[in-house]
From TrEMBL:
Parts forming coiled coils: none
Superkingdom in the source lineage: Bacteria
Transmembrane segments: none
Record organism: Paenibacillus glycanilyticus
Protein name: Circularly permuted ATP-grasp type 2 domain-containing protein
Domain Circularly permuted ATP-grasp type, first and last residues per copy: 92-468
Amino acid sequence: MAMLMMKDNMNQLFADYEHPAFYDEMFEGRGKGRIHYGTMLQRLAKMGLEELKSRDALMQEEMVTQGITFTLYSNNPEDSSRERTIPFDLLPRMITSEDWAHLSQGIQQRVKALNLFIWDIYHEQSILSDGLIPSDMILNNPYYVPEMVGVDVPGGVYIPLSGIDIIRGKSGEYYVLEDNLRTPSGLSYVYKNRALMTSLFPELFFDYRVRSIDRGMNALLGSLRSLAPHSKPDPLVVLLTPGIYNSAYYDHCFLAQEMGIGLVQGNDLIVKDRIVYMKSRQGLRQVDVIYRRIDDEFLDPQVFRKDSLLGVPGLMDAYLAGNVALANAPGTGIADDKAVYAFVPDMIRYYLKEEPILNNVPTYILTRPHEREYVLSRLSDMVVKERSLSGGYGMLIGPTATEEEIKAFAEKIARHPERYIAQPTIKLSCCPSLTDGRVAPRHIDLRAFTFMGSDSSYVVPGGLTRVALQEGSLVVNSSQGGGTKDTWVLG
């Protein structure tokens, strides 16, 4: 009788589930779950759809209570922004230990090469003189910061925190989609997702040996502290935020609280005699490391944008004098440019003398006439991205675009080919999601977070699975209405 009830619940739970023509993380065929999801499918069958919906409602209430939010911006001047809870899907995504070993090795290899590339660009520029990357792509890049030329950053670490976006293709193969190296966001949601899941589904954690993420915050703090000038034994670390109106302000607050560091805005800091101080009730306290969540152009109005009210006047002078560390270092955007991304496999071979463990998505550089011509003839099959934008903005997804949108992008590319890159549309893997009161397949990606210190690196087990909640959508970014899942790396 119990087995019949379980089977009925499973049939009810997945009654409307249309098995996609993509790689499905949970199923390998109609009604056939992948081995590592077997126990979970049994648990879900016992619960049934109504129990899942009930727990989902409890979870949504808890997110509101805890204020787990993200700010969406609108082009409508009467509705410039609105804060909302970030959508969280309670059906977790699981990664086998074998897959994770492959992914984490590939991610660490990639981050190591990117860090060496940034050092090279601001020092010897050997990769340019050897002709592996066009010089104008770097030296005329808006993310190139001439003030960083010749600067030896603490520990040689430019990117103590990076977010590497991973996708899975139709056959289950992994690709790197993007490298986020300036101010990568979303780490707080990794921890909040896990906390919500452990409280709502303790029985699932009893069934599986899910690899812990608890070490992550200490690893990040250790990476930041290792950058302190003069190897100061007890450095003062702060997180510099643009303030409450930033879309990722919740992320900033959570990370500062979890690491036990100060959360400051530009007017909380002052530079005297090329030393940065934090204003406090006890007076001025010298700051040794700044984990900054504002872009280069707003860091210091004396060097970058004169109208910036977010940064700290004189900050770059103190930084160049070696009296404070900035994480991530100014100028790191040169390595997460969407065109420079295409050359990362070459960087790995050039700096590490190794073959890349993880492949790129094939990428077309549109300043090359033959590649531009090829892309323009197949725009309906391409994803086109504006190099200077992120968060899902400035994109064309050919298969879902209208004729008018395709024509408009063709004209943009013809006028300014240097501003865009193009990639074939990858059939992102899907994972079952509870959406609109039913279980349905939704496209996902994975943002893996890596912390690099002066002598070690650490990849948070699992990272942040992002979900395109709209049916058929390939855009997973929170800024475009995407949600998140807890990501389980199995022991």
